[in-house]
Design brief:
Blueprint: E1 4-6, E2 9-12, E3 19-24, H1 33-36, H2 38-46, E4 49-53, H3 62-83, E5 92-97, H4 99-111, E6 121-125, H5 132-135, H6 139-145, H7 151-154, H8 161-171, E7 177-182, H9 190-200, E8 205-210, H10 232-262
Parallel strand pairs: 3-4, 3-5, 5-6, 6-7, 7-8
Antiparallel strand pairs: 1-2, 2-4
Helix pairs in contact: 3-4, 4-8
Amino acid sequence: MFWQEVSGNWFLVPERPRAIVHFLGGAFVAAAPHLTYRWLLEALYTEGYAVIATPFVNTFDHGAIASETLTTFNQGLTFLRKQRPELQDLPIYGLGHSMGCKVHLLIGSTLLAADEPPRAGNILVSFNNFPARKSIPLLEQFTQFVPDLQLETRLEFVPSPEKTLDLITTQYNTPYNLLLKFRSDTIDQTRPLSDVLVRRFPKTTTVRILKGTHTTPIAQNVQWEANSSFSPFDAIGQFVKQEFYRDIKQLKTEILYWLAGEQ
């Protein structure tokens, strides 16, 4: 399979697509999602889903990122629909990891125009909504070092974490949501998001807790070649590989199961 680029998006479209998945990655790996999330996205493609991955570069203005990301996606989708008319009436699902979840939530809260097709649902993996001081290395120490400059107030994401949850509470209009949290993820904030979405859409919000860490979605397939004489080192390598991919395969299974139930 070969990734192709159009209008700033990277995409894979199978011969008979079942639905469209719009993918957004985490803050520090979002610039090349077709590479950093390759295994997961290609697994969805193999199961019949058209994948459109939109790169973005992280800044403090997350609202602007959401707006630019939606524009980029719409431009790419318009082009693809001209080339592949069968994409025209397919449902669109958002899939986000970490900060990518926040961007999808902002798109669903403030940006989708009335004449645009609504998202059929969103899959939100390891939602992260920390303030800037906890998201950017050394920023918290720096703001404590120069408190008179009030940098903690100035250097904050827009919208702030609190404002983001307020927008979701009052304006988010995508009823069908799958929230996925990993047991060993120390920076996940799915709980406060699930509190909001379960209240807003109690019958159509699903929450699952899986084995894994915050970096599970970016696991890649490493080809381990055992020596002709199988050694203890080879045994360890095979074991580590099996353990590592067990978690991302479970993630894939949960996503596919939910998508199949929504179509």
